[in-house]
Amino acid sequence: MHKFEFLIVAGLALFASACQNAAEPPAPPEGAPDPEAVSEAPEVSLGEPGESLADGNLSGENTDVKFVGKKKDGQHEGGFENLSGNLEFNPEDLASSKLEVVIDTTSLWSDNEELTNHLKNLDFFAVNAYPQAKFVASEFKADESDPSTYTISGDLTIRGKTATITFPAKISKGEDGLSLTSEFDLSRSQIGITYGEGQIHDDVQMTISAQVSSSES
């Protein structure tokens, strides 16, 4: 089965990827929550991965969410290993098309182990308190200049905050199954992640792509 690099959301790890060198993160300001207490924070309820997607056709096996975050002196790559979701696409009836993804934020990875740990803490994803991120599409629009390209809009929820995002995607459906790929910039400040402002670029480069076999679509 082909791999699917899927945007969403996560995409968010992009923000953080650019953030860190091998240096220890700065001490939190006075009054900030204790990072050691993260595990005690209340969990946001988005449902268990795949809870409302029992018949979903997206998983960490056929879908990848990857990101590149940039800073003044370099960049970092990362992504998420585990997710669940559902992709349905009808070019003749876009209103019936669906895309819903639940990402396991604890499965976040990057090209630097120390950075990975930093991205998981309170400065970024706070994965112990918020172990899931979610994207639910609300609209698919065809691109009149390119019949294979569509614009997808929907709600992205991270750390309990929801923002509406829009991104382009190439989608095709044939005998072999359903394919979706996307590359776009995601503003981390749009979802309230501003750590390293002025040092880390606000835009995170997301890469999304998916291949669902005909037996799964």
What this model shows, in words?
By secondary structure, this protein is mainly beta. The chain has one domain (9-21, 42-213): Lipocalin (Beta Barrel), CATH 2.40.128. It is built from 2 helices and 12 strands; from the N terminus they run βαββββββαβββββ. An 11-stranded antiparallel sheet has the order 2-5-6-8-9-10-11-12-3-4-7. A hairpin with a 2-residue loop joins β9 (146-158) and β10 (161-174). The longest helix has 7 residues, at 113-119. The chain starts with 8 loop residues before the first strand and ends with a strand.
Q: What are the salient characteristics of this protein?
A:
single chain; 217 residues; mainly beta; Lipocalin
